[in-house]
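Please go through the protein record below and see whether the fold suits the sequence. Record follows.
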Amino acid sequence: MGELFDLTGQVAIITGSSKGIGRAIAERLAEHGAKVVISSRNQDPCDEVAAAINARHPGAAVAIAASISRKEQLQALVDGAVAAFGKVDILVCNAASNTHYGPMLEVTDEAFRKMLDNNLISSHWLAQMVVPGMRQRGGGAIVLVSSIVGLKADDAIGVYGVSKAADIQLARNLAVELGPNNIRVNCIAPGLVKTDFARALWDKPQDQVAEKFRTPLGRLGEPDDIAGAAVFLTSRAAGWLTGQVIVVDGGATV
């Protein structure tokens, strides 16, 4: 592979990587030479993904289950990654939750707080945990998986959009704070990707989906469409890119 995209020697934590976008990112980072830490709430699915990656790239993956809602579990995730591979060079915050569909004025306080905790606060926790080591080693890369609904309004998932807009601002502020330490922080904003997480949006009559999520490329996204952006943002190819939002949506927002 080209030197710009070579991740050999890098260690990456990817949350929400037992399926969907997170799994695709983990698989592609490993394909480009990184050691990857697979994480989601349940250990068995993480073990399955790690085993599949190790079958293709021996010794490239470990599985450490952690809930993004539990700070102590996230700390155990980071500690486990360091114990397994000696360091953390890359953090991809992909795991998220969507606890409310419908008008924002109907969301309960509990659902709103849970979404902010899981989609925003957990990413800040993880950054706090990995940055000291990155500073010590002279650099690193953090990628927050946001969404195009963090850039535009939506009448079904507006609360989720608020949390994803906050992710974008978190990335910008961390980019300013961490730039002097050669730590780059960026966002990926996917459009509608055919995953289990987004099933409520795309598993509908085709005419409804086509009307709301029309794209110039004529299709919805697949997990691997997002993985390429993650490889770019974590590699030397993006060495002078920080505080940015890469929109990967088939052109839907244009």
Remarks:
- The first helix runs from residue 20 to 31.
- The helical segments are 20-31, 43-56, 71-85, 109-137, 158-178, 199-202, 206-212, 223-234.
